[in-house]
Specification:
Strand content: under 5%
Largest sheet: none
Distance between the termini: 15 Å
Helix content: 55-70%
Number of strands: 0
Order of helices and strands: HHHH
Oligomer: single chain
Amino acid sequence: MAFTLWNLFEASILCLNAICILHEERFLSKIGWSSKSPTIQGFGENPSAKSQILNLIHSIRTVARIPLIFLNILTIIIKLILG
């Protein structure tokens, strides 16, 4: 099986799906990565890597939710047709 652009597209869809279905209270809070955990940060300080990753996860969940539904539908239809 060759590594194609379609395989890369499917892998990115799977990763986006995994990020979008993460439940903060069930999975992220167990390792201390909940958005409700206190992060004290002063004015002008660079955010930590942990807060940047949490912000990225939250942003992906917010922005990619609706387009991801259509991309999943498109992927399923193409898989059914080309099989």
